[in-house]
Design brief:
The chain has 55 residues and is mainly alpha-helical. 80% of the residues lie in helices and 0% in strands. It has helices at residues 3-7, 13-51. Belongs to the CcmD/CycX/HelD family. InterPro entries: Haem_export_protD_CcmD. It comes from Achromobacter aegrifaciens. Required for the export of heme to the periplasm for the biogenesis of c-type cytochromes.
């Protein structure tokens, strides 16, 4: 969809831009949560290795 078409939708462009914005925000939130979870898991594994309790 071109920018011209997006802004010529009879006043509906704020809704479309909002929907795209919310979608991008949710994708970013999901990436952040997954990154933090993997970082915590990696830290727990490193701690277990250092303690000698790794499986």
């Amino acid at each position: 969809m071109s920018w011209q078409a997006l802004f010529s939708l009879q006043g509906h462009s704020p809704y479309l831009l909002g929907a795209y914005g919310v979608t991008l925000a949710l994708i970013g939130l999901e990436a952040l949560v997954l990154w933090r979870r993997s970082r915590a898991r990696r830290a727990a594994q490193n701690t277990a290795r250092a303690d000698g309790t790794a499986r």
